[in-house]
Amino acid sequence: MPIGVIESLDHEARGITRLEGKTIFVEGALPGEIVEYASFRRKPSYELAHLVNVISGSVSRIRPHCEYFGVCGGCAMQHLEPSAQVAAKQRVLEDSLWHIGRVRPEQILSPIQGAPWGYRHRARLGVRNVPKKGGALVGFHERRSSFIADMRSCAVLPPHVSDLLLPLRALVASLSIPDRLPQIEVAVGEQCTALVLRILEPLNARDEDLLRQFADRHGVVFYLQPKGPDTVYRFYPLPGPRLSYRLPEFALELEFRPTDFTQVNHAVNRVLVRRALRLLDPRPGERIADLFCGLGNFTLPIARSGASVVGVEGSQALVGRGRESAVANGLADCVEFDVANLFECTPESLAALGRFDKMLIDPPREGAIEVVNAIGEDGPQRIVYVSCNPATLARDASVLVNDKGYAFKAAGVVNMFPHTGHVESLAVFEKACPQWIPSPAGPVT
Fold it and tell me: Going by DSSP bridges, is the β-strand pair 358-361/382-387 parallel, antiparallel, or unpaired?
């Protein structure tokens, strides 16, 4: 059995060791540990392995909080003390910036973090009817498997959602189509919790009655999705509260549909918006771009500052939601939303939006390489970049620094998904300016 010394964690929270020039990724191993491992996949330049035995353990290794950890694939880092998780993610960010982009920020921002449990307000739960295990299973997939974990609770879901797992299993098993309901999507709002049932065949009258009874008993709202995401519709109850989340610091409430993209962690999102706005420092009279704006998570707070803001997003539906929220929050006069595919951004299409004093970019995992390549000499004075992928942030940062003449002022991690290897981050780029205000010292919670 091979033995290795773990150097660090990768972006999927696997321990990294090396053997005869080959990189070995060991699931469950922690930095500084000496471990025995067994490989389950071999490639010419690397191997994937699972942990067999810890010979010398890390002081940061703890007992996982959840009994399903190691089987359920929803979490990857419960065996690592929470503050050490954040430190590991900070290292992943810094390593990516240097090794991929050959850039380093002038300042490391204090990490943004929140409660480690009960934080996940959005989730996609798999469903599978397994008579050998007593009926339907509802939960996350098992690690490295298409099977659904046999879980009866989940510590990262809000407690009231975790408490629904067993009742949902019973509900699915009682329906006429238990084998034709592969997914339940969960969306938790300020005033209601929505469950979207992906149904591959229509429900009958008895099924519909069972859903109504379940909704009344557990205080949830059912949506049905017979085909693609555009077919989702509210089933029961039809009247009542709608999904929304609040940004109290900016006196905002934004409505959304259960399949819209919103941040999974409402508490951390509030801190993220506050930090991003502080770094962007929008002021009355400025014209600011919010690219990949979604339904206005940053757009509307920027507008609340008195600046004029243009939100650009590829989804017509999300732009429509943003416009509705601008009206509902009294900001329609200082917000403009445009639909555009920013993955096809060119210098000409970016220039057609007009000149901006500042810019916020919040792209998906693919990053914003077309946008940063399109920025011209009259580009914005300051750019705040919200990233969900350190690798594409590093690539884009290299262009901004080496090709576009921006200084890389600061960067730091956002622990949006505790106990997972997912690394979100915040970065600031600026043209020469004497008025740069650094982030406050110490952690922001």
Answer: parallel
Catalytic pick among 75, 334, 388, 433: 388
In tens, the pLDDT along 250-282 reads: 999 999 999 999 999 999 999 999 999 999 999
Q: Kindly state the average pLDDT of the residues 292-308.
A: 97
Tell me how far apart the alpha carbons of residues 275 and 279 are, in angstroms, rounded to a whole number.
Answer: 6
pLDDT, tens digit (0-9, with 9 covering 90-100), for 54-104:
999 999 999 999 999 999 999 999 999 999 999 999 999 999 999 999 999
Please state, for a pLDDT cut of 70, what percent of the chain lies above it. 97
**DSSP H helices in 175-304:** 205-218, 266-280, 299-304
Over residues 413-421, mean pLDDT = 97
**Residue 388 is among the residues annotated as catalytic for this protein:** yes
DSSP alpha helices (H): ranges in 20-155?
Answer: 82-101
Strand 308-313 relative to strand 335-339, pairing: parallel
Rounded CA-CA distance 257/189 in Å is 10
**What tokens appear for 15 in the block?**
């321990």
- Residues of the chain above pLDDT 90, percent: 93
**Cis peptide bond N-terminal to 237, omega within 30:** yes
Q: What is the pLDDT of residue 437?
A: 54
| Dist. CA 114–CA 246, nearest whole Å | 16
Rounded to the nearest 10°, the torsion over CA 424, 311, 193, 273 is 50
Minimal CA–CA distance to 64: which of 51, 47, 55? 51
All domains of the chain, ordered by start, with CATH? 1-61 (2.40.50.140), 95-115+261-430 (3.40.50.150), 122-188+192-236 (2.40.50.1070)
Smallest CA-to-CA distance from 15 within 2, 30, 32, 37 is with 30
